[in-house]
Write a structure and sequence with these properties.
Structural class: alpha+beta
Order of helices and strands: HHHEEHHHHHHHHHHHEHHHHEEEHHH
CATH class of the largest domain: Mainly Alpha
Distance between the termini: 49 Å
Largest sheet: 4 strands, mixed
Number of strands: 6
Radius of gyration: 21 Å
CATH topology of the largest domain: 2-methylcitrate dehydratase PrpD
Helix content: 40-55%
Low-confidence stretches: none
Amino acid sequence: MENLSLRLCETVAALRYEDLPAGVVATVKRLVLDSLGVTGGAANAPGIAELNARLARWEATGSATGLIGKRGYSPPTAALANGAAAHALDFDDLHDRARVHTACVVLPALLAAAEDAGGVSGRQLILAMAIGAELHARLGLACYNSLGKGWHPTMVFGTLAASLAAGRMLGLDAARLNDALGIAFHQASGSAQSMRDGALSKRLGAGFAARAAVLAAFLAKDGLTGPRRALEGDAGLFTLYERDEVAPELLMQGLGRTWRVPEYSFKPYPGCRCNHTAIGLGIRLHRDGVRAEDVAAAEIRMGHVNWLTVGQPFDAELESVVHAQFNAAYGFASALVNGRVDLRTYDKTSIADPRVVALARVVRVIDDPAIDPGAIEPARIRLIPRNGDAIEVASTTIQGSPEEPMSDAEFHAKFHGCLEFGLGASEDQTHRLLDAVQRLESSGDAARTLIDAFPAA
């Protein structure tokens, strides 16, 4: 691992837009589109209005834009506001194996940096987005049990990946990129406790990471130095955070030649990805005619890391949307009762629905040693009916993944639905933003193109 951080930065500095395969560019555009959609969808999500109101009290103007309300902020503050909104609904992209949400960190950092710098082309932004997404996934794969240790990989690895993406977009050479990586590492943090406790701070994490990345990239550009061995040092990421439980070859092997970007998943349902297999099975059971009132008890079996994340008993008395987002019993119960899970599933009225609450109370989530502890996809469900034999269903794939992808129609319906839900956007407004993203490589000022096309509330 000698000079690993610098070698990583040398590879990043050498990448060009022409190096990107068509499939990577296509996925990057999906990441951008999905992120802008879920950002707009979160305009009225708990915590987002309050966050923007507080930030606006402190900053009346600036060289970057908070998308919700189209407010002027400094670049770090805009990255914070937009990152928090992009992650608030827990409806954003995920690299399933790496367990990282990417666009909620990388895109807000890039938009803020590009708007401040001015004149950043669509091709430059696409390249930077590809770099950020690729590194975020590779860091998550290399540090393969980070969530199991209690870190929030989206935050920790997102801070590092987004700093290099923003630095590359700003034209930093390898040495300055290594400074950006080091300054980002100096700020990197993020505990899983917010999700386990159902706290609104969970949705701030992506914003904190994006803010730190912007600050790191610009300070490195201005000549401030950071630690040279952010990854491999004896107090670096691998030893200090990951306790040397890493596969560093997954970070560098084939970097710039083989791409992880097309492996990203897009969520068909809001809420933690660890719930999605159980939700899909609940919808299937509803379609097969199973009804909640006929169920005496249920078991959901999943791997250890999923169980740690979403396996608590559902407590309706908390009146916490975040608790519901991170609760497999609630997600499954809502799916079986209603035959669907959508944005309205996670509002205050829905999480208090007595039919859903009653079913969630008899659902037990089990840490199954027969399931790979780190696997996100598998789930097994066993229903005990009030009359008749037990019903068992299982799946080893997860909807929205490359193995079970959303169709274009489903993806676009999600995009339109989010913008209508949060901003009351018309079809004309959502099509304008869709067209801006689809033509992004032809833009001479990518940040201006996307921000101008983003619907106002």
